[in-house]
Each structure stands twice: as C-alpha cells, then as structure tokens.
From TrEMBL:
Pfam families according to UniProt: F420_oxidored
InterPro entries for this protein: NAD(P)-bd_dom_sf (IPR036291), P5C_Rdtase_cat_N (IPR028939)
Protein name: Pyrroline-5-carboxylate reductase catalytic N-terminal domain-containing protein
Naturally occurring in which organism (per UniProt): Garicola koreensis
Residues covered by the Pyrroline-5-carboxylate reductase catalytic N-terminal domain: 6-98
C-alpha cells in the first residue's frame, strides 16, 4: 500500500517539526523552501530526516497523486508574497501561520487585518476563492508551538488522552481531510467552526500555546 504524502511549504522550525511528527506517523513528506532541493538536502538530514526536498512548484504533485491533497503553509506571514498560489492549486491548504506584531506584512494581508478579519480569512481570499486556484483553506496547527509539536503528537494514545488540535474551515470535506491527518499524527482534532472562528486560535486567543484537551477547546465555543 502506498503511503500518503503531505506537502509542507517552509522548512524552518515549524515546517520541520510538522515533518518529523508526520514521518514518525508513517506519512510521507515533501518539503520546500527558498533554497533549491540540493541545497535543502543537508538541512533536512539534520532537522527532518526522511523528508523529500522539492522545488516549490512541485510541492503539491505527490500529495495530489497519492492523497490526501494537503499542503501545510508554514512560512512567516511577512514572506507570503513569495508564495505563488498556483503552487498549491486544487489542494487543501493548511494555514499554520501566525501574525507577530513586529512583522512587516504584505499590504493585502495588513489591509485585511485593518478590517478586523482573522488572518485565515484573508489568506483564504489570497490563495483560495479570490485566486481561482481551487484551494480550500483550513486553519490548523498554528496554535501548537513548534517545539511542542513532536511531544504533543502521540499516535500511541487513545484520542481522549491526546492534545486537542483546533480546526477551522468553511468547507466540510477539507475540514474532514485535515482532521484525518491530525488523528494520524497523534492529535485529537476539534472543529471550532468556520474560518471566522479561527480568531480564538491566533496568538492573542485563548487556545494559543496551551496544552488543551477537547473539553477545554469546546468551552471557548459559542
């Protein structure tokens, strides 16, 4: 049986932490950065052994061919102008990014924030509905600190004993695909609703960087 493959855009601390957790759970990983695959290979041998370095334009190829057509966006928000929406066309894009107050953000993202929108909604317009790429955006994995990802992902434990991972999405199928990925990684996914609800997952929100269980997350829902 062919192993599922997930693409990860970004090979920094968050991207490689996600990669290690997925690889440990038997999920293949393609990963890219601003460096060429050849230049990235040594970095991955240290920080994500087993992950395959690819060009950004190739990040979605294997995950679309081998399912579940998921790409994780794990780049700093200040660098989002460097991400071509066509790289992730026809995928479920997991927005694992966060806004930090000292970042100089792209003008389109700052404009959405100025309108009091959660960043996930602005990214959905940029990469999904507003771009014609067929991308369906899901907010997930951003509220778990990169240094906690591996210890939080415990596939050997029953769901009730795992760390909760909030998921927000407008599309039910996309939400289901990401929740399935999180279960396989060893987390307990909890739907918090549509993308507007993702505000509680942001750095100033009640879920951010807190080791919560399902009941803790549900307490913050309307």
């Amino acid at each position: 049986m062919t192993e599922p493959v997930v693409g990860i855009l970004g090979a920094g601390r968050a991207g490689t932490a996600f990669a290690r957790a997925m690889l440990r759970a038997g999920i293949g990983v393609d990963i890219c950065s601003t460096r060429s695959p050849k230049a990235l290979r040594h970095h991955l041998k240290i920080y994500a052994p087993g992950a395959a370095p690819v060009w950004p334009a190739e990040i979605a190829e294997r995950t679309k061919a081998q399912g579940p057509a998921i790409v994780v966006l794990a780049v700093p928000q200040e660098e989002l102008d460097d991400v071509d929406p066509q790289w992730v066309a026809s995928t479920v894009l997991v927005d694992a990014t966060n806004r930090w107050h000292d970042e100089l953000l792209p003008s389109w993202l700052q404009a959405g924030i100025d309108e009091q929108l959660p960043t996930s909604m602005v990214l959905a317009g940029r990469f999904g509905a507003g771009s014609g790429t067929g991308v369906r955006l899901v907010k997930a994995l951003n509220h778990i600190a990169h240094h906690d990802v591996e210890s939080s992902a415990t596939p050997e434990l029953p769901l009730a004993q795992r760390r909760a991972a909030a998921v927000a999405a407008d599309d039910d199928d996309a939400r289901g695909r990401v929740m399935g990925l999180l279960v396989r990684m060893g987390l307990d996914p909890v739907s918090v609703g549509a993308l507007p609800a993702s505000r509680i997952m942001e750095p100033d929100g009640p879920l951010f960087n807190r080791p919560l269980r399902r009941a803790d997350v549900l307490r913050h829902l309307p």
